[in-house]
Amino acid sequence: MASEFIDQCSIKRYSLCMKEVPLMPRTVKDPEERRRELLACAMRLFTEEGYDNVSVRAVARAAHVAPGLAYHYFDSKERLFAAAIEDYAQRCAKGICEVLDEHDLPLDDKLERALEVGANHDGYTYANFFHEKGHDALHDRLSLAMCEAVRPHLRRALEEDAAERRVRAEGADELAGIMVYGCIGIASGPSRPDERTLLIARRYLHALLAEFRSEVTLH
Fold it and tell me: Distance (Å, rounded) from C-alpha 168 to C-alpha 158?
């Protein structure tokens, strides 16, 4: 009887304590926001510890989520790594894309400013990792992802320029690819391009643009 009385008292005290201690609200985040957090943690861990030393569980732990949730977004480490590089490339290319999307800026000025933004390495958080010896394939993968992120923005800028001139923008996508792949290659080097390199890049960009404008005008 005594033990039953003690147990009942313990239950009552536990119930009172639970009533006094408020439950922490569960944090519910937008799925895309959660995905971006996982990718940011993955990119940081991959660059700090190396691909072979990082698991999906380790990324989940760094992001303070359950492993099952991480696997819900990425079913393998390979897919997580590929998505992390693509996400990082898009973040690196964001400033360039924003310049190209400015509607009140002439195309010639967009190209000048986009080149300057791309050549500025301040926003490339993990630049040193991608330029380490033995990481050539990873660097090429990142550069390609950056090109694919910028290309549609430059194509639209070329199409808008042609529309203002009331001509057809034939070859806009091809020209965007040529411009982007050339300039990203220059901008993504191990150090900021010098003035001579930037001058040459500007010269060829404007020459290509002039050719594009003459071609669309003829059509």
Answer: 10
Q: Can you tell me the distance from the alpha carbon of 54 to that of 25, in angstroms, rounded to the nearest whole number?
A: 31
CA–CA distance from 213 to each of 116, 178, 180, 207 (Å)?
A: 23, 15, 17, 10
Write out pLDDT tens, residues 120-141: 877 788 988 988 888 989 989 9
**What residue has token string 């660097």?**
139
Q: How far is CA 61 from the centre of its chain?
A: 22
pTM: 0.78
At 27, the amino acid letter reads T
* Structural domains present in the chain: 27-75 (1.10.10.60), 85-218 (1.10.357)
**Rounded CA separation 124/18 (Å):** 49
